[in-house]
Amino acid sequence: MTVSAYFPVPLMAQAEAAGSSILTFLFPILILGGLFYVLLILPQRKRQKKMEQLRSEITVGDEVRTIGGILGRVVQEDDDTFTIDLGGSTMRVVKRAVAEKVTEDEK
To answer: Within 13 Å and on the Cβ side, how many CA atoms surround 84?
Structure first.
């Protein structure tokens, strides 16, 4: 017996059309997922690595600016905090709160 004896031709055509419609449905979703990854996730990872590198390079004596705009000189470093001198008083901040290392050019 042939396949067409078990499955009439219109049913086989519908099954083939259903297989191709799944591909045409998934293709745009995969393209959008790839664009989302390239345009949003990769740049965020790059910024995050850059900030982690910046924070690991900060040592005692460096002048820093926090995300709140406070300028100070690092006087002590713990595991996850910096103690910064504000010119008469000190302040403890978490390392994630440091936005940048201030250089002589930026002063």
So the answer is: 20
> 53 with 68, same domain?
no
pLDDT, average across residues 25-53: 93
What's the mean per-residue pLDDT of the chain?
Answer: 85
DSSP H or E stretch at residue 94: strand 90-94
2: in domain? no
**Backbone angles phi and psi of 44, in degrees to 5:** -65, -40
Give the DSSP letter string of 59-99: -TT-EEEETT--EEEEEEE-SSEEEEE-SSSEEEEEGGGEE
pTM to 2 decimal places = 0.63
**Which token pair is 86?**
């504000």
Structure tokens at 40: 């949003």
